[in-house]
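Researcher: Good morning. I'm working through a list of sequences from a screen, and I'd like to move beyond sequence-only analysis. For each chain I'm collecting a predicted structure so we can compare shapes side by side. This is the next one on the list. No need for commentary yet; just the structure.
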Amino acid sequence: MENINPQNWPTPNNQNNNGDNRPLPPPPPPPEITLRTMQSDIETMKKSGGESPVAQPFNPTASASAPQQKSTIELSALSKEDASQAVPAVVTEELEAPKKKGNIIKLALILVVLIGIGALGYFVVYPIVGPMLFPKTQAPIVVNNPPVVNPPITEQVPATEQPATTSPITEQLPVLPVIKPHQTLFTVEPDAKKNVELITVTLASIKSALTSESAIKLTATTGLKEMIVFGPNGQINFSETLPLFLTEFASTTLSQYFLEDFTTFLYYDKSGVWPGIVAKVKDSANVANAKTEIAKLETSAALSSFYLTAPGTADVAGFKDGATGARYLKYSATGASLNYNWVKTNVLVISTSYNGFKAALTKLGTQ
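Model: Good morning. Structure tokens for this chain:
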């Protein structure tokens, strides 16, 4: 049987516009209205175990007769358990994520704009405006004046390193040796002259230099060559040279009597090459004492050191007086005879051969 809803019946006023009393057709059913509220969503999620909430049908008539309810439920009225179920953490993160992403994008855009403004100012604006705001100062003009010579700087030892009474120490330059010139004692020009320079003054170096020079012969068979022997400080000293040959003599004693500059010679003949020396007593020295000092050579056992080659055996009789007033010692080798004598009162002549002794007297102008 068809259910007829009384509300669909026509009322006395339900008449058509034509004025007849025919009933009008019933109005169409009202549209279905669905409604979702926070409370309905919470209940739906509780019942379904967290599924998406579904809208519930809404009857306006029933809703009008029912007591009015609040449309908004404060979260504070809910328990902690209900609040955590009502607003899942995923929903909160999804809501906050766009805000964070938007803030990052804004910061990035602001940074790019600032960098662009700085680059534009440095590379475009500053090259144009900078020279006008900060003009370059012109470099000072340098005038080529003569250099100023400062006084020499004296190196001083700090006061803390020396006693208070010590004067400042001045750096001293090494003292260069003074080269002493040679003045020959010969008054007659010798047959030849030769300079010899020694690195060190020793008996071996002197005899080596004389031996090397003895191999260089003179033009004539016989003759006298003056040897000018220099050491590091110039002409070698007599007081230092004679003790090298005869150790009986002391350098300090000889320097009191004799001039340091003396004459050395080599005499050439058919028997060999014979060395000799000439020395002069100082004007201020006692000649007699000088003669007494030189007489000591007659007792020396090293007289053969004067020779460049071995002179043989010395005469056992020792020194004898010669015809010219000289004293001599005969050796077994041909031409070897050690002679010494005083000429011109204060000039000493020593020769390793008698012929060389006579040639030296000739060059001294005494024979």
